[in-house]
Amino acid sequence: MARAMRFEPRERVSVLAAAAAPLAGVAVALLLCSVLILWTGESVLEAYWLLLKGAFGTKFAITETLSRATPLILTGLAAAVAFRAKFWNIGAEGQLYCGALAATWVGTGLLILPPVLMIPLLFLAGALGGGAALLVPVILKNRLKVDEVVTTLLLNFIILLFVSYLLEGPLKDPMLMGWPQAAPIIDEGVLPRLVERSRLHLGLVVAVGAALMVWLVMTFTVWGYEIRAVGHNAAAAAFSGIKINRTIIRTALLSGGLAGMAGVTEVAGLKGYLTLDLSPGFGYAGIAVAMLAQLHPIGVLASALFLSAIYVGADSMSRGVNIPTYIADVLVATSMLAVVLSVMLTRFRIRFN
Q1: Which domains does the chain have, with CATH numbers?
Q2: SS3 7
Q3: Model-level pTM?
Q4: Alpha helices of 11-147 — where are they, by DSSP H?
């Protein structure tokens, strides 16, 4: 006779097991992807060595990896904060563009201030723009119980089409002979480089500071406790006096603001101007960052660095051996699934009847 299987919660999960679960998931993902590398006829050890070398082997590689990790940290934080309150924000991509759009509006000549004032103003404008992009989905959720997964996802396409319209019309730089691109950010608003002759800019410091700030808020403040309480059990939180709708609105504004700041780092730090291809999908990758980090703000730093290293190192690996760069996407997806499974197995044990 077939035996029924069930998942039984563990009474206690040790700190060591909780910390080892993501590492075990990543290791399993690397082993599984080794099969694909062997399928191409290449050496697994050589491929992974080239990936590691391409991400951290030189000064240029390290700065590129850190530069790529900067927007991933902020979009990962945006997803982690929202998911903590079980507000499923899938629209960080659109909020990133709203932040970049707000920074472009302010930073192309609306105000001319010294860099010490101009740069914080751009981040403030980006945070407000990203937060404003979430107002409609959060109001629809609170008032009409509309699923935020649908509204935030579809809003991405609306925002991208709106940005495309602006770049083809009101915001088009007339000096570019018709190319759909906004005017460049003024020199006072450009983020300074952290390393000379590299693309690594001040946005990395802002992103790390944001991660520390979110960790402090989530761990040591009443607001952070309310976010975690609503996410754990909204009914119990409401019974204890926590205002659910107000907490979700605050959480959504913080989440959208963080994603909007990611847009500022790209438009004022990396490119210097707004284009429709500003983001290759940082908003969606932020969800993977948050899940790999188990929604922990400090863990987001490590998971963003991991994903960035894979994407940057995959280019070097593809040039060194005959392996397509798409292996990076497979490795990221497999890592996320393996980490989720390993975390589940640390919290539940399998029982057979």
Answers
A1: 25-352 (1.10.3470)
A2: strand
A3: 0.92
A4: 15-39, 44-56, 59-84, 92-107, 115-132, 135-144
